[in-house]
């Protein structure tokens, strides 16, 4: 049964309160017209600590489904399907952290289940809600895009329970490129080094090419997107939430004190970016879709498409298929 609330506050819960799930609990607790009803985790000690921190209850999974209108599911990917499916069975709207499921088939089954139940199923591709990305998305409609280049680099992490670098990091840029260009790529190539911890991929969309790099072995944290268009060059810094537009770039030779020298100049614009926490924007959009019974910004179909591309790129960098090109679906 669909328990979409009307005038009363939305009752929210978080299933899985590791580092990401705890942040969801924090933001739910900060939002107006939302009651953080409870949290749940297989590790009861962790659940109790988070519950104390955000003034709510630590409860069993079944109790979350009884108390809540909406939930965030931030459990390991291997159990996404089972947990999300049970939430949907209970009539609860779901925001599931990326990826939507472990396999494309599971993702499609969840999408069908949510549609049949009339429930919102949003996938947590958080960079869609980065204010800098939202600014660029508005600008790009008026541009003739030639190429995109994304870099998502960083040093090794202490955490050991990480997916491969494509599913854990590059997936964000796969989703952003798809949101900008629309549809799935026509073809892909990819390769990796250092056991796949540094991976590059090239995605072909008609006459536009997207180059993606993800790394866990780079000793500097970089989150950057560059869009080359005929009219200008856009530079996006995800971390700084900033956008630069380079226009009218031209080279020239000038005479200075009798000496001839070369210079290259361009006009740089800095459009206004309404900075804010992407997670807050993401949860606000999710709750708005629930309140208005509308399609979420990041749909289950978006999550499935990103997962399909992740799996293709992962296969390309696997030891059994090095440097091999495959045609995308």
UniProtKB/TrEMBL annotation:
Residues 163-228 form the GFO/IDH/MocA-like oxidoreductase domain. This is Oxidoreductase. Coiled coil: none annotated. One of its GO terms (molecular function) is nucleotide binding. Keywords: Plasmid. It comes from the Archaea. Residues 11-125 form the Gfo/Idh/MocA-like oxidoreductase N-terminal domain. PANTHER family: BILIVERDIN REDUCTASE A (PTHR43377).
């Amino acid at each position: 049964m669909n328990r979409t609330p009307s005038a009363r506050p939305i009752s929210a819960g978080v299933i899985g309160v590791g580092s990401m799930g705890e942040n969801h609990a924090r933001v739910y607790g900060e939002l107006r017209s939302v009651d953080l009803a409870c949290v749940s985790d297989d590790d009861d000690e962790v659940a109790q600590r988070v519950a104390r921190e955000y003034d709510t209850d630590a409860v069993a999974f079944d109790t979350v489904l009884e108390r809540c209108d909406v939930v965030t599911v931030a459990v390991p990917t291997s159990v996404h399907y089972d947990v999300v499916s049970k939430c949907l069975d209970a009539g609860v709207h779901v925001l599931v952290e990326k990826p939507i499921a472990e396999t494309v088939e599971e993702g499609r089954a969840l999408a069908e289940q949510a549609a049949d139940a009339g429930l919102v199923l949003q996938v947590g591709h958080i960079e869609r809600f980065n204010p800098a990305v939202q600014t660029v998305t508005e600008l790009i409609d008026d541009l003739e895009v030639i190429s995109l280049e994304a870099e998502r680099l960083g040093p090794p992490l202490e955490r050991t329970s990480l997916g491969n670098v494509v599913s854990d990091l590059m997936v964000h840029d796969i989703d952003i490129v798809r949101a900008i260009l629309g549809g799935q790529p026509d073809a892909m190539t990819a390769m990796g080094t250092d056991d796949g911890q540094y991976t590059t991929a090239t995605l072909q969309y008609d006459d536009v090419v997207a180059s993606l790099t993800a790394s866990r072995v780079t000793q500097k944290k970089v989150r950057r997107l560059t869009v080359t268009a005929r009219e200008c060059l856009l530079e996006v810094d995800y971390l700084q939430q900033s956008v630069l537009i380079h226009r009218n770039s031209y080279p020239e030779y000038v005479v200075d004190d009798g000496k001839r020298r070369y210079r290259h100049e361009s006009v740089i614009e800095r459009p206004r970016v309404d900075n804010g926490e992407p997670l807050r924007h993401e949860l606000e959009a999710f709750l708005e879709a629930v309140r208005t019974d509308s399609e979420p910004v990041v749909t289950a179909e978006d999550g499935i498409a990103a997962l399909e591309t992740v799996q293709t790129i992962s296969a390309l960098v696997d030891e059994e298929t090095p440097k091999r090109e495959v045609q995308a679906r």
